[in-house]
Amino acid sequence: xxxxxxxxxxxxxxxxxxxxxxxxxxxxxxxxxxxxxxxxxxxxxxxxxxxxxxxxxxxxxxxxxxxxxxxxxxxxxxxxxxxxxxxxxxxxxxxxxxxxxxxx
Length: 104
Known about the structure:
The chain is α+β, with helices and mostly antiparallel strands. The chain is built from three helices and six strands. The strands form two sheets. A four-stranded antiparallel β-sheet has the order 2-3-1-4. A two-stranded antiparallel sheet has the order 5-6. The longest helix is centred in the middle third of the chain and has 19 residues, at 55-73. The chain is globular, with a radius of gyration of 14 Å. The model has no long low-confidence stretch (mean pLDDT 88).
């Protein structure tokens, strides 16, 4: 079952830029199970909106890629920024360039 999550981080959006840039450099944007990733700035910091093939793949990515990378490239203050998450069940997804659709 697909899995959606919105992660809201309070702090300087340069944290996102730094982590995202390093992640793209290391993975080429190819992360198993990731269907959609959007980052956006907010008044308090930034949000990441993602849709995954499964929650297990999301958890594995965070455990094996994101958290180790964050500990390498972010300062302790940045890594400790307040984080809030909201999980959701995606109801539809269309990615025309890939021909990928989701209708549940």
